[in-house]
Amino acid sequence: MIMNLLTLTGALGMFLYGMNMMSTGLQKTAGNGLRRLLGTMTSNPFKGVLTGLGVTAAIQSSSATTVMVVGFVSAGLLTLAQAIGVIMGANIGTTMTAWIIAVFGFKADISALAVPLMALGFIFSVSRKGKLKNVSELVIGFSLLFLGLSLMKQSVPDLRETPQVLEFISGWSGHGFISVLLFLALGAVLTLVLQSSSATVALTLIMLDMGWIQSDMAAAMVLGENIGTTITANIAASVGSVNAKRAALAHTVFNVFGVMWVLTIFYPFTHFIQWLVSLMGVDEATSVIYGISMLHTVFNLINTFIMIWFTKQIEKLVTAVIRDSSQPEDATEGRVRYLDYGLVATPELALAESSKEIVHFSKIMKNGLEYVSEAISSSDDPDRFETFRDKLVKYEEISDRIEYEIVKFLNDLGKNHLSEESKGLVRSQIRICGELESLGDSGESISRSLMHMSAYGRRLSAEHIAKLCKMTGFLSQAYEDMIWNLENAGKIRDIHNSEVDEQAINAFRDECRERELEGIESKGDAYFETVFYLNILEQLEKMGDFLINISQSVMRSGLPA
């Protein structure tokens, strides 16, 4: 008995590991496709449902999808209304897992092919092609999933040999509707403990197949699983934004409402499911197993069809329950806005979030350029200059902090869980963060040069200031074009806009330098102003180099659109 229990625990671990590995392999294989699919999310709830269905069907995890959606809401990539539609779709998409388990794990029993499939997976894993390596994870994960399921079935004790277990289960099952509620609670608790609705469905099907429970109790467990799976999203949202908490609560409202209306017509509903399965023309033993998968699917389809018309009302409800008491937007200037560690579990999809944060980072650095221009203009007014000098020092610290947080997020995605193409995107994003941080350093360095110039009793002439401010105007345009390239990454075919900006910056730098060096021997003591002026001019031109480097990085590997 103890050995069976240990085997069951190990088999469950193998099942969960296989499910996770298969999900990771699917994400790697379809990473770009998933990111494009996420890009289709609009305010139309029906499109949101289709998107949630598609993503969940692809990565085989509604928990991963809902956690991802909560992260996207927290990051501002999705509105609350969009998120509600996607969550509804995720609930439908997860029912595909129940069908896969029921068909291949119980009726076809694909576990006999699992070991040969693992051999195929190993062959793929040693391939030099990145795509085949991704497929190898998918195949091996699929094999482990069904090996684990097979071992779970074998390790569940026969009730005829363990009458004490039969007596315990019978004690739970003989109380009519109260038993329905007890098994509903059991399904919710199991899902909460295992953090996998798929594992709970598998255990439910095993208990049903072994005769531990009747079909109505199994149906109650599946309904409980729909409540238990909302806990994952609420845990992820607990450290997220207000809208993230609202999205998680919307998921709970959706599932709890669905369970409530099914409970009011529980027995007629289960009879309706049995009738639907009878139309499939399968034998009695098969119909019992298929009935659970059918109930899971039909329940979520009907619930979505009902609730999709009340998306706005759900949004109003969760907004009223969870009020926003955060500080105004201005108070969070210079902080990361879009990173959410809940998405680290779905690294292929988290890249879209880090891309959004990089665009935000670039806009913050553009604000710093305005202070560079102001510092140059006020260089002959010590008090006013000191104000902008302090701002540039602050922006240099901000750039260091944001670079650190984005790079840490990218490293935490785990490069072993990314496709080769996505690894290239990570490298590109890290390189861009470095260039953006260098822009912050340049702004602070220019203010330091101006401060040293003042300390030596030197001042820029009006002509010098006018030319340097003109250069910052060129840089401002270069910033605009660089940000546009970042925002449209994956869609642009060239960076001609940034190349034109770079040429204009270099040409103006050369023109200013040549003019300044003409007759430098006759300038006498003004030579020192020339040195400071040319130094600042070169630092501004170097900022232009950082900007073109960013656009070139976008063009070389692209960022998620």
Structural class: mainly alpha
Rg of Cα set: 30 Å
- Domain count, please report it: 2
Helix coverage percent: over 70%
What are the low-pLDDT stretches, counting only 5+ consecutive residues below 50? 327-332
Strand content: under 5%
Order of helices and strands: HHHHHHHHHHHHHHHHHHHHHH
Keywords:
elongated; 79% helix; Methane Monooxygenase Hydroxylase, Chain G, domain 1; mainly alpha; 561 residues
Short structural summary:
With 561 residues, the protein is mainly α. It folds into 2 domains: 2-321, no CATH class; 346-557, Methane Monooxygenase Hydroxylase, Chain G, domain 1 (Up-down Bundle).
Task: Give an overview in words.
The relative contact order is 0.09. The protein has helices at residues 2-29, 31-38, 45-59, 62-75, 80-93, 95-107, 114-125, 130-155, 163-173, 177-194, 197-209, 215-237, 242-264, 266-278, 284-307, 311-321, 347-377, 382-412, 420-455, 462-487, 496-517, 527-557. It has 2 domains: 2-321, no CATH class; 346-557, Methane Monooxygenase Hydroxylase, Chain G, domain 1 (Up-down Bundle), CATH 1.20.58. The model is unreliable at 327-332 (pLDDT under 50). The two termini are 55 Å apart. The longest helix is centred in the last third of the chain and has 36 residues, at 420-455. Helices cover 79% and strands 0% of the residues. α7 packs antiparallel against α8 (130-155), α20 runs antiparallel to α21 and α20 (462-487) runs parallel beside α22. It has 561 residues and is mainly α. It is built from 22 helices and no strands.
